[in-house]
Amino acid sequence: MPQHLIARAPPPRIAARSNVAAILPDGREVEVLWVRDARARRLRLLVSERGVRLTVPLRTPQREAERFFQANLPWLAEQLLRYAARDNAIAFGRDDLGPLSLRGVSYPLAWRDAGFLRIDASDAGIVVHAPSGASDAAIRRALRDFFMAQARRDVGRWLPKYLPSLPRAPRVLRFRPLASLWGSLSPSDAVSLDLALVLGPPAAFEYVLVHELCHLIHANHSRAFWREVETRCPEWRASRGWFRNEGLRLKAELNRLIGK
What we know:
This protein is α/β, with parallel strands linked by helices. It has helices spanning 62-71, 73-83, 136-162, 202-214, 223-232, 236-258, and strands at residues 14-23, 29-37, 44-48, 51-57, 100-102, 105-107, 109-113, 118-122, 125-130, 172-176, 183-185, 190-194. 36% of the residues lie in helices and 25% in strands. The strands form 4 sheets. The protein has a 4-stranded mixed beta sheet with strand order 1-2-4-3, with helices on one face. Residues 1-10 have low confidence and may be disordered.
């Protein structure tokens, strides 16, 4: 067979992976998955329900990756403490009037007796209208539907101003809880956004939407991609910093409210 006709398999995306034990500043030991990824463009440290993961670009020297990891150990320790409360779902008792976040604002949560279950929001607060026998599961589903409707309302307000500058519109928009990411664009142009985004500041939510829409122009994180993001969202760095400091708390709050 002629040499030029031999099919060659593409190089593997994951070049190497290993589990490394690390000691946090407070003395705790944590296991970290180090992954050498051929598609990665920058060092990235993530905490999710799967554990701690450090993604390292293929050409990044080992010493540089180790310096990055050591410099971020205090941040990692703080995030792991916040993450420990993810599974502590709140009980929806009638005496629970604790605040509930929406668009970066903490609203009082009130209960009203009603013939059927619904949730309303106003400037004064968020009200759960529920029959006396409504189960926690039913109220969690209602909260999920409420957040979904609010998220769709926000994106429906933002999306029209960005569509004219895109090569094509996203095929579909989906909202759901995501473990570690805030958004993604599939090969079929479907945009997925973390439902927790509607709990945080609108500017941060809109930045994630812009980020994924710009992947319709550049399917990478090149300088050209970031130029497109900055054209549409000049304050994107502030939003990215907000997610780094507060993102895990936001995901944990959504999980406590609606469950996994």
